[in-house]
Design brief:
The chain has 15 helices and 20 strands. The chain has 491 residues and is α+β, with helices and mostly antiparallel strands. It has a single domain (5-446), classed as FAD/NAD(P)-binding domain, CATH 3.50.50. The strands form 3 sheets. Strands 4, 5, 6, 12, 13, 14, 15, 16, 17 and 18 form a 10-stranded mixed beta sheet that branches. Helix 1 packs parallel to helix 5 (183-196) and helix 2 (78-99) packs across helix 15. The longest helix is centred in the first third of the chain and has 22 residues, at 78-99. This is Probable malate:quinone oxidoreductase. It catalyses: (S)-malate + a quinone = a quinol + oxaloacetate. Keywords: FAD, Flavoprotein, Oxidoreductase, Tricarboxylic acid cycle.
């Protein structure tokens, strides 16, 4: 087969990760030839699409799963701090692109939306207060408020109190500097600026094979509109969502040995009724059910997609062997290899609560699922809400059999190929994750790129986020560029 073109970089998959990596690489090496291959006829149709994720700018302001409670009643905030730091780096990259004209209007993808945590029951109220006391001392969580007064909570999010029984112990934290992000819109914005700088994006281009030859080049092969294509590249990034695992397996790199994937799907309830939407301008996260995966933390969210406002509640976990919404029912079975059979079997036997949770969710009736919404919005009426299918996630099964709810960067030892497995907090941490990948794949260039990376993301590798003055200055700079609310000083 003839080779269509040799490229410096091939990005497999047209989602937020590939788009973020492509834009950063263009800043570091403007002369490199870059091609993005997307198997569907539009970008961000899978996990990056606005209805395939919650659209939360994940900064741990409201997500309770990042702050587990210790046996002594104290709250561990270490994960929350890491997640917030990562999102600040992502914000810095966005701000740089806005300030340098590569993103014309940040309002097209990000907007200020208050973030709340909301709980009920005396034990949960005590937990939330302990969480707030721990977080509010850190500059990244400046301005966070706590209240167990129903009237104060009503001012923050009226729907939470409509129809609620009086006397029930409730509490909430409130931060007015949270964000709602349309990662689908952002992906397309980044792709447009990549194209303007010389990159190409091919649609309906399904990659079927990845292999390396003795000349050190990667051969990327597949079909586009039924016709075969064949590119060679010095560097390949596999950002294909759930299909990253099988494609990295095809590449045959030893680093993928032992890794498997566990697919989890989801559903949301959605309404666009103006009289309902107008009463709730916030993202409100509650506590997950026992045994639920982190991606199943219940939340009632304001969403703005294509200029229209909605409320979305969920997610409800589900299961299918597909690795993508528009995938195959054979995906899971095709990913099982001799080297990952034992880790996958071990995961199944060591995650019985998760398995039982998924079974109960799949078998749960639509009426039972609607009842879950009543915990956050007691006056909700089922007829006002429609069910939508959310994105498909493939959680990482590590070679030791551990099930990992997060992202995993896989890179070959020589840095010529890399990929991303897993999900959540995913898109919000795209910039630091891709910078980590670049550092691993291009160590010989990293020092030379240092000054440009410091411009792009001055917070990458930063260790002084506990300094109030410098941290608030950093947050204020990105808030100004992105036209979103600034956090308030401590106290």
């Amino acid at each position: 087969m003839d080779i269509d073109q040799h490229l410096d970089v091939v990005l497999v998959g047209g989602g937020i990760m590939s788009a973020t990596l492509g834009v950063i690489l263009q800043e570091l090496e403007p002369t490199w030839s870059i091609k993005m291959l997307e198997r569907l006829d539009a970008l961000a149709e899978e996990s990056s699409g606005p209805w395939n994720n919650a659209g939360t700018g994940h900064s741990a302001l409201c997500e309770l799963n990042y702050t587990p409670q210790n046996a002594d009643g104290s709250v561990d905030i270490s994960k929350a701090i890491v997640v917030n730091e990562q999102f600040q780096v992502t914000r810095q990259v966005w701000a740089y692109l806005v300030e340098n004209g590569r993103i014309p209007d940040p309002a097209a993808f990000v907007r200020t939306t208050p973030h709340l945590s909301f709980v009920w029951g005396a034990d949960n109220v005590a937990y939330l207060k302990a969480r707030w006391e721990a977080l509010s001392k850190h500059p990244l969580f400046s301005g966070m408020k706590f209240s167990d007064d129903p009237e104060v909570i009503r001012r923050w999010a009226p729907l939470l109190l409509e129809g609620r029984k009086p006397g029930e112990p409730i509490a909430a934290t409130f931060t007015d500097a949270g964000t709602d992000v349309d990662f689908g819109a952002l992906t397309n914005i980044l792709a447009d600026t990549m194209i303007a700088k010389g990159a190409t994006v091919d649609y309906r281009a399904a990659v079927k094979d990845l292999h390396r030859t003795n000349d050190g080049l990667w051969h990327v092969m597949g079909k586009q509109d039924g016709k075969p294509f064949h590119y060679t590249a010095d560097f390949v990034f596999v950002g294909a969502g759930g299909y990253a695992l099988p494609l990295l397996q095809k590449a045959g790199i030893p680093e993928i040995k032992g890794f498997g994937g566990f697919p989890v799907s989801g559903e949301f309830l959605r309404t666009d009724k103006p009289e309902i939407v107008a009463q709730h301008q916030a993202k409100v996260y509650g506590k997950a059910a026992v045994g639920a995966p982190p991606m199943s933390v219940p939340h009632l969210d304001t969403r703005v997609v294509d200029g229209k406002s909605y409320l979305m509640f969920g997610p409800y976990a589900g299961w299918t062997p597909k690795f993508l919404k528009q995938g195959s029912f054979l995906d899971l079975f095709g990913s099982i290899k001799g080297h990952n059979l034992f880790p996958m079997a071990k995961t199944g036997t060591h995650n019985v609560p998760l398995t039982w949770y998924l079974i109960t969710q799949v078998l749960s009736s639509s009426g039972r699922k609607f009842t879950d919404l009543l915990d956050l919005f007691p006056d909700a009426k089922e007829s006002d809400w429609e069910k939508i299918t959310a994105g498909q996630r493939v959680q990482v099964i590590r070679p030791n059999g551990d099930l990992q709810f997060g992202t995993e960067v896989i890179t070959h030892s020589d840095g010529s190929i890399g990929g991303l497995l897993g999900a959540s907090p995913g898109a919000s941490t795209a910039a630091p994750i891709m910078l980590d990948l670049i550092k691993r794949c291009f160590p010989q260039r990293w020092e030379a790129w240092g000054s440009k990376i410091a411009e792009l993301a001055p917070g990458y590798g930063r260790t002084d986020w506990t300094d109030e003055t410098s941290t608030l200055e950093a947050l204020a700079r990105t808030a100004k560029a992105l036209k979103i609310a600034e956090p308030q000083p401590l106290g």
